[in-house]
Amino acid sequence: MLSVEQALEQLLTSARVLNESEVVPADAALDRILVVPLVAALSVPPLDNSAMDGYAVRAAEAIEGAVLPISQRIPAGQIGSALAVGSVARIFTGAPTPAGADSVVMQEDTETVDGGVRFLKTTRLGANFRRAGEDIRPEQTVLTAGTRLGPAQLGVAASVGATELGVFRRLKVAVFFTGDELVMPGQPLPSGRIYNSNRAALKGLLARLGCEVIDLGLVADTSEATRAALDTASRQADVVMTTGGVSVGEEDHVKGAVEALGHLDMWKVSMKPGKPLAYGRVGAADFIGLPGNPVSAYVVFCLFAAPFLRARMGEAARNPISFAAPAGFTRSKGGGRREFLRARFEDGQTVLFPNQSSGVLTSLAWADGLLDVDAGVTVALGDPVRFIPLAELLP
Length: 395
Ligand code: AMP
Ligand code: MG
Hints:
Layout: H1 4-13, E1 21-25, E2 38-39, E3 49-50, E4 54-57, E5 67-68, E6 70-74, E7 88-91, E8 103-106, E9 110-113, E10 116-119, E11 129-130, E12 141-143, H2 151-159, E13 164-168, E14 172-178, E15 182-183, E16 194-195, H3 198-209, E17 212-219, H4 223-236, E18 239-243, H5 254-261, E19 263-268, E20 271-272, E21 276-282, E22 285-290, H6 294-312, E23 323-326, E24 338-346, E25 349-352, H7 362-366, E26 369-373, E27 384-389
Parallel strand pairs: 6-7, 14-17, 14-18, 15-16, 18-22, 20-24
Antiparallel strand pairs: 1-13, 2-12, 3-11, 4-7, 4-8, 5-10, 9-10, 19-21, 21-22, 23-27, 24-25, 24-26, 26-27
Helix pairs in contact: 1-6, 3-6, 4-5
């Protein structure tokens, strides 16, 4: 059995970064991965400017009780003239400060009087004064290669005037689902059958990562159908993913099909839910076989497949944030495998979903995190336990 860390490390060493990129409009780049660093050609802000509505001053002149005349008015977007000695400029937030001014007094700290403004306080040198380039300087790398372009990153790109961005092309992931018990929602459900829930969850997870999903749907539990699906999938996609059918039961044909068309490593990972993790290659495509049980498939996706796919699509690695929090429950000695329990963080403590079975998908819909509990550990009320927010495992 491999530890979680060992399995992840082995998987990540197989993640070849895509070698194709494209240029996309910045407006359409949300959740894409930057392929080259974004370097600024200008300063942000371009000029010294005011952080407040008020008066641009020389701090030495703007002392408590002094009255100074207003020599000019500078709205945002306009350039004033040099500040006459012994005067102030009426100025607004974002407006460039006039030459000679070194501070801005907010209007709340003044009162207007005949002949100008009176200062209610002595001005601190540099107050409310934003320096040119204090955010970004020319030639500065504002976003590094491998950055996922979220809202903040797109904002930064816009602030330096970018209209197009070089990004990795989207990773193509083909999925199919095995199990003759499965029925698609929308179809009647005969006795003995269940709806295919892994498809909806997996497609959602892949969409979150920004993958292009090729959905080959349900595949019959025969070796012929499984091989045919795998062959089609591997010709169209960078990565083929399946759920179920990788155990050693006689109805499990995925393992045999991958071995017949390519090669497969079956790893037993010391974790619960999960344990079996299949990684292989078919032609030029990677293969990842997730467990069939919906909770196992989801957790194994989050802990293993997601980091693999993110590395494969060029995204720089980043460890999920987790934190220790008191257990709001007791739990008798766990088994021989590390457990990832479905939990919530509420009122400063962690709460467990009552049914931790790997078939109970409502546990994941309820949870906002996974509790990472080492093998063989007994948890008493108030013991610190490690909480990994689910949001940390996905972009
Ligand atoms: P398997 O790995 O194929 O033996 O499946 C393990 C368990 O997961 C069985 O109870 C299956 O019915 C269930 N399962 C497999 N695939 C799916 C799916 N796509 N949706 C819901 N349950 C599934
Ligand atoms: Mg099956």
